[in-house]
What we know:
Blueprint: E1 3-8, E2 12-18, E3 25-32, H1 36-50, E4 54-59, H2 69-84, E5 90-94, H3 98-108, H4 113-135
Parallel strand pairs: 1-4, 4-5
Antiparallel strand pairs: 1-2, 2-3
Helix pairs in contact: 1-2, 3-4
Amino acid sequence: MILLALDVGEKRIGVAKSDELGIFAHPVGFIARKSDRHAIAEVSKLVIEWNPEKIIVGLPKEMSGKIGKAAEKVMEFGAAVQAAIPGTAIEYWDERLSTKGAERVLIDSDVSRKKRRSVIDKMAAQAILQNYIDANKNRFPAC
């Protein structure tokens, strides 16, 4: 069971995917968000290539847990993806602090600021997906 994760940002969308057993999340890269149309086309290509059971979209809730403007924009993008790729299941996952956490790991690993910029989005997507997998271990038996 392959899962795909998206960390939707204003300029880039981080991408991660699970292994076939749905146990480990792996960073894939990012999609430049030139336009929603372009980004959705790129997501469609990934869906065709990997045939994921579900797309996990990071939802940037406010620290209070409420849905703010950023989360609303992400949900609009998710709805557009779902409309463009019928039959694709999309689930939103609370991603509060995923980017900050990924950045902290990279800083602690002494990764340069320039290098961090090129990997932060896919690392955040990986964190979102791994958190989702870990929280749902009982729902998705691997073996």
